[in-house]
Design brief:
This protein is mainly α. Helices cover 59% and strands 3% of the residues. It has helices at residues 43-60, 73-80, 99-102, 112-122, 127-136, 146-156, 169-175, 186-208, 218-229, 235-238, 255-266, 268-281, 289-299, 307-317, 328-335, 342-358, 364-404, 418-429, 438-463, 472-509, 518-529, 534-559, 570-587, 589-599, 612-623, 632-656, 686-701, 710-717; strands at 63-65, 68-70, 215-216, 253-254, 286-287, 326-327, 659-661, 664-666. The strands form four sheets. Strands 1-2 form a two-stranded antiparallel ribbon. The chain has a two-stranded antiparallel ribbon with strand order 3-4. Strands 5-6 form a two-stranded antiparallel ribbon. Strand 7 (659-661) and strand 8 (664-666) form a beta hairpin. Helix 5 (127-136) crosses helix 8 (186-208) and helix 22 runs antiparallel to helix 23. The model is unreliable at 1-44, 661-684 and 710-723 (pLDDT under 50).
Length: 726
């Protein structure tokens, strides 16, 4: 073909002599007038880039050639596709197609010079399109001709792809007709790829609309989109494609519907900007169709979306929310290709743990890493919980003594109120008296929190539906179950703690009263005695957790706006935890009073409570209804600050002692179960982002571009003894 027919004003990638494709000067531009000259990097940045490239190469190169280390294709994929990224839409093995760009000498091995060349290529702002260009420029002459393009396309397209006519008028506009075809320069090739997906959709529509009615069946539309844009769409959107016919009165899908859908997908980034701005201006973080259209008018210089495109957008965004007011999450669920429902994520996480355990002997590193990560969080939670319990423990001691105070006769009252109790404890027992019984509390705080949080997360996962939503009843049952399970472990520690807290005042009021140790109390009570008041303890903990967990979750999500695109600050978490703890602590005070009375050792002359009913009726008869709320304010003052101090300590410990897992530092706020874990864009490697975007461009050409074909796999399996291809 005549390459000279390319416009002279278009810059062409030139070569200088044989073997020039292996040279790093391969990017020389013939004409720099139409494209800004590349910025010359400083010597410091060049040195840093070279050092990083060398370090990465040495870490992954496992092959040898002439005594020099080289990268194999597997090494290359590991280096260019970090293991901690999200490969839900673009499989990690797909990155292998980029290997041929780095393998400039076609030896199935990449030298350090090749790797450095590839990394330098990724540093270019248009790396995505240049990578695609170099793949199709198979002979390295700086242009792509028709035969070269078609040959490489046929080698990489899917066996079941929808037919595409490369002799159509649209293609002719870029390379000329059969008699006057010319090669494509880099700029022409990139522009052709930009519009290729739209032409593929148009031809696919004609392929199915054989009667030229302008309509196709919903399932045919779904197949077209799956074949042309699956890598750009979320699972929720892909599963609902056939519902597009619902925006019109017809049961079929028109070409106008298809173009409207395609335009919305093409403007996804702009949609996200408009939705984000509109939601930020809304008092409740939700918007209507009118809010979106008004914000679109403010954000663009002309009408960006047609009425039909607005219909398409709000149809899919309203699939899981038909209230007419949509949050950013509703749009993200259908427009963000990385979005996965919480049930799927939870299932995958559990399956990964099971798989790691099964392969513990074959891959001990993976298994031990998961175990170590769990131990790390448990240890930090234990230390943070111990710090939180220690800080508010004096309030807990005051609460217990106020609840155990029975007499209504003023002359026999030990304490007038909580402040009087606090002051007298310090006066009579010293500052250390405020921490009587702290030992059992510290022993129990770690397993208590671990059991409570684990059971709540597990139960919420079971009650969450396929859309990622959980009912209020499910939240209440999950929280209550968590509270019930912790009683098995915490009740014995509670009774020991209470008796140690009270014995200080007994020693001061009764001369010669012996001071008991925790070990003595355990031996004296025995196994059954340690579970005295367990039913009352469960009556307190079940409703406490049933109130606390749903309240905390809704405060974070509905009031503070926590979501995939917003992480709450520590101040917001503290406030949410404190507010959620207030009603939970106060409304369960009557059960806490009964539990304390049952577990505390009765003194001489005091009523010995036989059971919950006897205790409740006796307290009501002798002390009145107000006695059931003794220590209520102290419980509020203890529960809310304890959670806040525990969370603050956990965040501080995580930042001081970060855990490195799979090359990334795990620090900051814990991620709620069910949310997608993805490295923030500003922290990702630019090289990885451009590699991924290059693959997106290639997948616009064909959904399985670069993957081995089924026929190729069968040919390779024929080499395996006993394999019989049918």
């Amino acid at each position: 073909m005549d390459t000279a027919s390319a416009p002279a004003s278009a810059p062409v990638h030139a070569v200088s002599g044989a073997g020039a494709s292996a040279s790093q000067n391969e990017f020389a531009q013939v004409d720099s007038s139409s494209k800004p000259p590349p910025r010359t990097p400083s010597s410091q940045s060049t040195t840093t880039s070279t050092s990083r490239a060398r370090a990465t190469f040495r870490a992954h190169a496992s092959g040898l050639l002439d005594g020099e280390p080289h990268m194999t294709q597997d090494d290359f994929v590991k280096a260019i596709a970090p293991a901690n990224e999200n490969y839900h839409k673009i499989a990690r093995e797909s990155y292998a197609v980029l290997f041929s760009v780095a393998d400039r000498k076609h030896r199935d091995l990449v030298s350090f010079q090749d790797w450095e060349f590839f990394e330098n290529l990724l540093q270019k702002p248009d790396a995505e399109y240049e990578i695609a260009f170099r793949l199709f420029d198979t002979d390295g002459n700086g242009v792509v001709d028709y035969d070269e393009f078609i040959d490489y396309y046929n080698k990489n397209k899917s066996d079941d792809s929808i037919p595409f006519d490369w002799n159509c008028d649209w293609v002719t506009l870029y390379i000329g007709d059969k008699k006057k075809r010319h090669s494509m320069t880099y700029q022409q090739f990139a522009q052709m790829l930009r519009g290729l997906q739209g032409e593929r959709v148009r031809q696919a529509f004609h392929f199915y609309d054989k009667a030229n009615t302008g309509y196709i069946e919903p399932e045919q539309f779904q197949k077209i989109i799956e074949k042309t844009a699956k890598h750009k769409l979320s699972d929720r959107l892909l599963a609902s494609l056939q519902t597009l016919c619902n925006i019109s009165t017809s049961s079929k899908i028109s070409y106008a519907n298809v173009r409207a859908f395609q335009n919305v997908i093409r403007e996804t980034d702009m949609v996200d900007v408009i939705v984000r701005n509109a939601c930020a201006k809304s008092p409740d973080g939700t918007i209507t169709r009118l809010d979106f259209m008004n914000e679109a008018a403010r954000s663009t210089k002309f009408s960006l979306f047609t009425p039909m495109e607005i219909d398409v957008l709000f149809h899919f965004a309203s699939l899981d929310n038909n209230t007419g007011r949509l949050s950013r999450d509703d749009f993200r669920r259908v427009l963000d290709p990385t979005w996965q429902d919480p049930v799927t994520l939870y299932t995958l996480a559990q399956a990964e743990k099971v798989e790691a355990a099964k392969n513990a002997f074959h891959d001990p590193g993976h298994f031990l890493s998961a175990v170590f990560e769990s131990a790390y969080h448990f240890l930090l939670g234990s230390v943070a919980g111990a710090l939180g319990a220690t800080i508010v423990y004096p309030i807990d001691l005051v609460k217990t003594r106020m609840q155990n105070q029975r007499s209504k006769i003023p002359g026999q009252l030990l304490y007038k109120n909580s402040w009087d109790c606090f002051r007298k404890v310090i006066h009579r027992e010293g500052f250390a008296g405020l921490y009587s019984g702290l030992g059992p509390q510290l022993i129990g705080v770690a397993p208590e929190k671990a059991i409570k949080l684990t059971v709540n997360d597990f139960a919420r996962g079971k009650f969450t539906d396929e859309k990622g939503k959980i009912t209020l009843l499910g939240e209440i049952i999950s929280g209550g179950s968590a509270g019930a399970c912790q009683v098995v472990f915490t009740n014995p520690l509670e009774i020991v703690k209470i008796r140690l807290q009270i014995q200080g005042e007994v020693a001061k009021s009764i001369e010669g009263a012996p001071k008991r140790s925790a070990v003595w109390i355990v031996r004296n009570l025995g196994l059954l005695g340690l579970y005295r008041g367990a039913t009352a303890c469960m009556m307190r903990d079940v409703p406490f957790s049933a109130i606390y967990f749903p309240t905390y979750a809704h405060l974070k999500k509905d009031y503070f706006g926590e979501g995939p695109n917003k992480t709450l600050g520590i101040g917001q978490l503290l406030v949410a935890g404190a507010i959620a703890g207030m009603p939970a602590a106060y409304f369960t005070t009557p059960c806490d009073v009964i539990k304390t009375r049952l577990q505390a050792e009765a003194r001489v002359g005091q009523t010995h409570y036989r059971n919950i009913a006897h205790c409740a009726t006796t307290v009501m008869r002798e002390e009145g209804f107000k006695a059931f709320f003794k220590g209520g304010p102290a419980r509020i003052m203890r529960s809310s600050p304890q959670f806040g101090c525990t969370l603050a300590a956990y965040e501080l410990l995580q930042s001081l002692l970060p855990l490195h897992v799979g090359g990334k530092t795990e620090a900051g706020h814990s991620i709620p179960s069910g949310e997608a874990i993805e490295v923030p864009p500003e922290k990702r490697q630019v090289e990885y982002l451009r590699s991924r975007n290059a693959l997106k461009i290639l997948l616009d050409i064909d959904e399985n571009f670069g993957k081995p074909k089924v026929s190729q796999l069968k040919e390779s399996w024929k080499l395996v003894p006993g394999f019989n291809a049918k």
